[in-house]
Each structure stands twice: as structure tokens, then as C-alpha cells.
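FAQ: What does the model actually see?

It sees only this:
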Amino acid sequence: MFNIKFGKSVILLVLLALLLVSMPTSLAQDNDFCDIAIDEIEYGDTVEDEIDDDAFFLWYCFEGEEGDEVILTAEATDGDLLLLLGIGDSFLEEIFEETAAVEEEEELEVVFELPEDGNYLVIISRDGLEEGDTEGEFEVTLDIANGDTDDDDDDDNDDDATDFCNEIADEIEDGDEVDADIDDELPFAAFCFVGEEGDEVTLTAETTDNDLVLLISVSDSLLEEIYEQEEADDEDEEIEIVFEVPDDGNYLIVVARADEDTDGEFEMTLEIEASDSDDEEMVEECEESGFEFLPYDETVDGDIDDDNVFAIYCVIGEEDDEITLIVEADDGLIVGVAITSPDIEEIYEEVFADDEDEELEIVFELPDDGEYVILITREDFDDGDSEGSFELTIETDAR
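And it is asked to produce this:
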């Protein structure tokens, strides 16, 4: 049996009886009604809905903590609705507070301090309940007087989330070697680097003076997750951390001491090997297009004749890479070379030899990251009559 208790009146007893009759006895007795309530409401929320003959009561579930001072306000916004407003536990064993409007535009308010952590029900109905004849739209708001709403909490969390790369860390990049002192006055040193998903990061560190026993960690810049952490056994041990960057963003390196009784200087080196996943995809695209992939600082050779008027290669580079193409032909071939867009619709640079012995060279700065095509051909293309072998070299200082 239910031990249903009411704070100030029994006006919601009929409503509760209707709820219980409409459900199996076992469900009504044993279950938290918040598990079957249609709508949830949180501190700071305002809900709009309608009461009529088809839906003469509505309920909303919220979660609160012991001591929360809850403020419920409700008012009819359309029609002749005379509202009833109450708050109860989620098992419908007790109605803590309720109030009823005596005129259509009256605003209702319930203030109640939650007795314990858990789920609670907000119940909305009308004067007369099922037998009532008023209906219309309403608006109900759930607030907390002695705490923050969820929106406020989110804002506070955003404010409290400190990006340590902007606060305490020195910037460090691929290839940098840094040194610092760890002692009682400054028991740690922090460094920040920018990584891209898939980058392989290698950190090496060692003590260079005194008895410092190193402890090094790599985390996100908010210090929410530590990805790698290593500590030395003694001052003579070198630490190495190899770490794959999970996402694009800032990462924090903290160098501290594993033994608080030690201090001294350390030296650390950061090396970042860029992910080649994007390059691999473009290489596959090159090969699917029937082009041969040509890496930087490689030399290839081929033949141009009546059956093969073009030799086509694919190059993958980054914006501002400066590449040098060098082409030499054997006797008999008057060679030409061009660098183009991937679809070969835009020719960036091209040059043709005047005779068989001329060496060709193109120096070109890539305008964007991505794929480029190198064409080797002969004078007059299909109408030409020169044939022979060639050697193509691509050079760059980029990587």
C-alpha cells in the first residue's frame, strides 16, 4: 500500500489515484516514476505546454540534491486555465508542496527545500482535475535559490577550465632542445607544443647537473587527461617518451622531480614526426588515377616514344615547398617537362628543350598543400618524331 502524505491539502489525491489506477500495481509500487515520466526538467529550464480534457495533468522529473531550495513558478498563458502546481517525490509517496490558482492569470509559486538527493516530480493539473472544465496553455519554470543552474554550471566550468598552454607553459616545437632548473622554488617546468592527429612525438630528457631524478608527463593542455608519464630511477637515467597525438590541438609537457629531495638542471628534446595518413590517401588517389607517385629527393627514369608520348608522375607537397625538377634526355629525345594541377587543367610551369642535349630545370613554389602532376613529353607531342630515354630528379629543402 502507498503511504501518501500531503503537506497542506488533499487536492492532488484524485490525481495520484488516477495515475496509480492507470498502471499495473507492481509498476506503481516498486518503480521510480521518473523512469517512465515523458519529460525531464532541469534547474533553469522553462517548459510550455497545454492542459485540456485529453491531458488534464502533466508531470516532469528533475534531479536535485539535499538542501537545494527549489522555486517552482507557473502561470496560464492562454485560455481560461486554473492551474494546480505541486512537487512530490518520484515514487508518488508524498506530495511536499502544492498550490492552486483562484483566477485565470494568477501566477503560482512553490518554494521547497529538498530533503535528500534524488529524483522529484513537478505535477501540473487544473482545478477540478478530470472533472474540471478549464483548459489552456501554461508556462512552468524550475529554479534553485541557493545554487547554480545547469547553464550557470556549464559557464562556470568553462571559466574554470584553464588552458595551461596560455598560463604557465613555454612554447616548444619540433627539433627544439630546452633546459631548465628544478628546485624547491620552482618544482616543475611546463612546455606546450601543437600537435596534429597521428603525429608521433618523441621526448628525451636527462639530468645535466646535480642529483635531480626526473618525472615527465604529457597531457592535454587543460590537464584533464595524462596520456604518458615516465619517471627515472635515479639521476643518471635518461627518460624517453614516445606518444601518438590523438587529436589536433595543444599538448602540455610537465617536467618535475620524482624525488622531492632532489634538484638540478635537465635537458629535453622534442621531435615530432608528422602523420603520413593524409599523404597515404593522396598516394592511393595518385595510383588509382594511373600516375606513378614520386617522393621528394628521388630520381626516376623512363622512355618517350610513339607508343608512350607522356610519362606522368604525382607529387604530394605542402604550401610554400620549393621544388626543383631536373630532366636530362638521352640522344634523340627533345624533351619537355611541366608541373600541373591534379586534373592537368592548369599548367603552373613548363619548359621544352631546344635540342637533344639540353638539360631542363624548373624551380617552383607550391601554392597549396596537396597533389601535383609532373608531365614528361617530347616536342610536338603526338606529331613529334624524337624518341629516347630520360631521367627526372625532384629536389627540395622542404623535408
